[in-house]
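To close the section, here is one more complete example, presented without commentary so you can practise reading it yourself. The ligand is glutamine.
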Amino acid sequence: MINSSLKTLAQMLANKEISSVELTQTFLNRIDAYNPEINAYISLDHDRTLAQAKAADVRIAAGNATALTGIPIAQKDIFCAQGWKTTCGSKMLENFIAPYDAHVITQFDHAGAVNLGKTNMDEFAMGSSNETSYFGGVKNPWDFSRVPGGSSGGSAAAVAARLCAAATGTDTGGSIRQPASLCGFTGLKPTYGVVSRYGMIAFASSLDQAGPMAKSAEDCALMMNVMAGFDERDSTSLNREKEDYTRDLNKPLQGLRVGLPKEFFDIGIDPSTKDPIEKAIQKYQELGAELIEISLPHSSLSIPVYYVLAPAEASSNLSRYDGVRYGHRASEYTDLMDMYCKSRAEGFGAEVKRRILIGTYVLSAGYYDAYYLKAQQIRRLIAQDFEEAFKKCDVIMGPTAPSTAFKAGQKADDPVAMYLEDLYTIAVNLAGLPGMSVPAGFATSADGKPLPVGLQIIGNYFDEARMLNVAHQYQQVTDWHAQAPTLDKPEGSA
Ligand code: GLN
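Output:
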């Protein structure tokens, strides 16, 4: 059951083979057993969760269930959920109880889904390993000595370890796709503006986008049906007609034009990752796709551009944490300025402070033109590269991450090595395009452990239904996405 698709779970609920309370309890039992070790969840509230499951059972019995009614979902702790502690992985918000629901949370509530708990994440979503979280690192379920990726590391570990049926994440530079690659499941970052950012704690507002993290493309499509849609409370939410993201899943791929950016295979990619990616692309050829070499000439600039723009936006967004209205306030201070300084010095971790400093610097009067403006200009060129590429192909494929999951601590003291984790994902955010990661095989670590490798699929604006189709067809002829790590029985259990 823990391995079942969302569709199967919905059928089991509809046929009364299981109740939502039983299903939810199954996941809660696994969470109780494994979470102390894996640390995927920051906040749990079994009573609230089970009350939602009970309500879902009533709704199912009344015959007005949706595709996700009664399904237990893990929510990244970046989404405000009324009455839930919402920390964003930071000491700054350690005791913050959200007074309202994020749009994404409301959407899941309306669908009758069950909120299993709030998942661990890098502090304010800054990181690629979950190691910047104030609440501690998260273990990769495939190998507990390795990181799950980040920043949505808790959601990633929860999906991989089957501590939820599916989860939500957010992706500013790769935080859905890179952990999906490192933990071996399917994750989608939608086109910017498709999912409302209302109530989603802001990191870099022009890049942040929420999306589904689930076992399969089909599950992601069902999640998208709930998450996507216009919301007037987010000024960048796009007013488009509601879509059914499952509509194209079964289309054959004959004639699909797959663009392969030469830059994605030339630099940075580890040989162990390259092999499964090449095999996956071959598979697409067997499914009738045509391979086309393309170029994204400015892609090597995406990391430097991102590390000007994202910190600039973050420095502005994070100025609201001043110890006045909510969040951490220093207990001792001499005057107002001292209170601001001490509250921020105590409340933020090292990576967040680094970004605030960079952001403030690049926005300062003397450097704005040299850094911020220049980065905005290159951002446009990066988007134009994709525009050109999509004249020749329908989707773009390549690796999601340069390598498989790395050891905890391995890159924690080397910010640049950490930033390179998003080498292939960041350009997609800068252009506002949709991107996903699909399990494409395993590479064996030096100590003999199978570690997942993700194939990245990048689509044109609003082409999520096609990308899900492309991923789903691959998942009909491969079973990488269906594989789950074997977890040791927790200590003390029977
Ligand atoms: N790893 C990138 C960063 O630290 C991206 C994080 C994200 O997508 N939220 O900024």
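Once you have examined the tokens, check your reading against these statements. The CA atoms of residues 349 and 436 lie 29 Å apart. Residues 368-389 form the longest helix (22 residues).
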